[in-house]
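Problem: given the chain below (184 residues), write out its structure.
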Amino acid sequence: MEVWSGWSPLFWPAGELIARLFGRRVEQLSLPMRPLDVAHGMDSRVRVIRDRDGEQVGAAWLRTLRPSGRYVFSGCYSARRLPGAAQPSVHVAFPLESGNVQVFLRPVISDGGGLVLESPPGRFGQDGAYVVVHDGGRDFAARVPLHETLRLYCDPYGVLRTDHELRMRRTWMMRLHYKMERAR
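Solution.
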């Protein structure tokens, strides 16, 4: 998988701080800060998660930087229907030390036949991003103003590509572009 990254100058310092103090230590959400961080590409492994009856309940997607092998993201992906929702969402859980980040992405088929996944602004309980913390035997959840849009499509040459934008409220923080090809 080839990756290109770009940060908004406004959010770059916070991204660097999270990557240095937190992301690399827990091997999670360690976003590439500079384009050269991903110059050698990223390895991508997907592992099916099954229940005790053998039914697939999700998939783990592990992404590491080449050649260091350092983890960037490790997420559990599944389909979940939020209470009162008309359709299922793509649910992504990123484990952290005392909790996790959970993102519910609304799927929409684009005019060109691609797939758009979006975590839009909204109320608690709707598609969006949440932080869940376990503290003192109790769990606490809060919706956070982090929004994502992923546009997955095949280019004119039949190559699968994704444009991924992270925003804080309405301001873009980071943009990633993925080029994904079948492993040889």
